[in-house]
Amino acid sequence: MPRTMWKGAISFGLVTIPVAVYPATEEKTLRFNQLHETDGGRIRMKRTCSIDGEEVSYEEIVKGYEYEKDKYVVLTDEDFDAVPLESSRAIDIQQFVDLDEIDPVLYKKSYYLVPDETGAKAYALLREALSQDQKVGIAKVSFRDKEHLAALRFKDDAFVLETMYWPDEIRAFDADVNLDVKVREQELQMARQLIENLTAEWNPEEYTDGYREALLSIVEAKINGQEIESVAPEPTAKVVDLMEALKASVAAAKKQAGGEPAPARKKATAQKTAAKKTTAAKKKTTAVKKTAARKTTATRKKAVGE
Fold it and tell me: What is the pTM of this model?
């Protein structure tokens, strides 16, 4: 399990449950360093003062808030510690709501909450109560120099804390295109049929990052001294007639299904879609030989940056 990033307690009513907080997610993005093209040296970023041009050490750096152009007020560590927050060491549950009441656009990052031995029973009790009533706790919590709005739900046997954006951080939808258009009933029925043909049970394991895998194959191939041949992407077809595009899409979905019974057809569609994604990723690295795929795990981890 990752290193504990925060320790505190779940608090609701007079009940307190001591917990440790761990990140529930990790990004698998390939990380690249900036290098000097002529000699391969690493590019280093220096912290310099905009007034005297001198390099500044961390010990000499303070935090300033710009209240007017080029005018700052400096805040010290003592100033930050003086902020009156009741949620500084508690996940303070304010209320309970139904999960479907929360707009997913509010969610930010997920964390696992692990109780200590003294709080295990209360932890299990709250989890069971939320499970039976299908409720989610809405809480406030402070860590990393910021107070967060958060949703407290469970996943399998564990509590998950979902930090959320504050309502005033969500941008209003503003489009320059007129979306108040009428659609024909025939178009609507065709669109619904296409959605039905592509509907299947949600299985996240069926989805992989095709771009990352293809890019990693290129990195491993170059480590082995192989040349990479670029393949031009296929041109995107322009939609001239919406109805014709819907008909063609429905026909393609049916052909993909292969006439199997509904549950099996949906599964087959998802599998073939995943297969197409894999094929597309392979096309991007046509010149990459099979030996790159057999590169050792150590080399792969080095490329990924794990």
Answer: 0.69
